[in-house]
Amino acid sequence: MERIVQQTDLDALSCKMAAVSKGYLPSKELQENVCGFSDYKTIHLEYFKSIMKNLGRRAQGQINRSLQSSFPVMNYGTYLRTISIDMVLHDYISNHNDDGFIQIVNLGCGSDLRMIPLLSIYPNMSYIDIDYEPTIKLKGNLLGNSEFFGKVLPADRYRLLSCDLSKHDEVINLLKEVTDLTKPTIFITECALCYLKDDDAQLLINSLISTYRKAGLWISYDPIGGGGEGPDGKDDKNDRFGKIMQSNLRETRSLEMPTLLKYRNKDSYSSRFKQLPDVNIDVRIQNLWEYFTKNISDEEKQRLKGLQFLDEIEELQVMQSHYVLLSAQW
Ligand code: SAM
């Protein structure tokens, strides 16, 4: 099972590459104007080239196929997921940057390269990527053996750590060695909690929030099953999104998302971050369709429209209504 879960990083990477190569990412509005970072495309292409050389033929074929069949709905999804997380991150950092050092911990980082722009823009930041050992080893080799990444990645403020997220005590012990518990800390789980068992995920959330008491932010992005409470308070039985997703993942990949059908809607997903009675926590959550309609400017929507012809707007709505972006601040 571990290996199957690790391979989900290749899905995330190929989706990111598709969105980059079609021009969805970077967004001028965010990555270039707000973040002032212009090398976004180059760092992604560079990493992609190196990882492809390190993969077996089968994985290369899988990635190439998904790049070639990069549907607009998928690219919108990748764009929204990336942009929404980056936006929350930048809002928080710009409000806390005067406090001195900020630390970011990306739990289940996979091949995500967000640390490069962030570390180069914010000199008062340290960044820790955590994933299973094979993923961390590969990422470490690709970044460490590259002259290009040697120049763009401030290595003194970046760490790659191997750990199994389902062992919350090991995660805490590891982090205690390399972080400062008194500094503002941001945790990111982007499509990572969904692969953990319910109890393991809850222990991870509770123990990290109660260890990093001073100030913190947790950003989490995940699918939700739907089919729970409908808008009128009754079960929305017609919504079979989660059930179909679960059976597809089981049949085609033998992959499980243990909490997909437990945290089916925004309220139940948010409840996981409110389990500690003595922590004052402000939890906000939106689905990504709401994010698209409310947070993306008309100009940006127009730009996206020009990239690929999207006639499956209803499909986009259904899909993005089943992904959530949560930010919990304490
Ligand atoms: N967060 C990255 C992104 O969005 O691009 C990668 C997402 S990928 C779908 C899920 C990642 O979570 C994989 O890299 C996987 O290895 C990692 N992961 C899932 N369960 C884990 C666990 N128990 N311990 C460590 N890493 C885990």
Automatic annotation (TrEMBL):
Keywords for this entry?
Methyltransferase, S-adenosyl-L-methionine, Transferase
Which molecular-function annotations from GO does this UniProt entry contain? protein C-terminal leucine carboxyl O-methyltransferase activity
Reaction(s) the record says it catalyses: [phosphatase 2A protein]-C-terminal L-leucine + S-adenosyl-L-methionine = [phosphatase 2A protein]-C-terminal L-leucine methyl ester + S-adenosyl-L-homocysteine
**Pfam family of this protein, just one?**
LCM
EC class, as a word, reads: transferase
UniProt binding sites for S-adenosyl-L-methionine: 81, 108, 164-165, 190
Superkingdom, taxonomy of origin: Eukaryota
Which Gene Ontology BP terms does the record give?
A: methylation; protein-containing complex assembly; regulation of autophagy
Enzyme Commission code: 2.1.1.233
* Physiological role: Methylates the carboxyl group of the C-terminal leucine residue of protein phosphatase 2A catalytic subunits to form alpha-leucine ester residues.
Q: Which family does it belong to?
A: Belongs to the methyltransferase superfamily. LCMT family.
How is this protein named in the record? Answer: Leucine carboxyl methyltransferase 1
Organism, by scientific name, is Vanderwaltozyma polyspora (strain ATCC 22028 / DSM 70294 / BCRC 21397 / CBS 2163 / NBRC 10782 / NRRL Y-8283 / UCD 57-17) (Kluyveromyces polysporus)
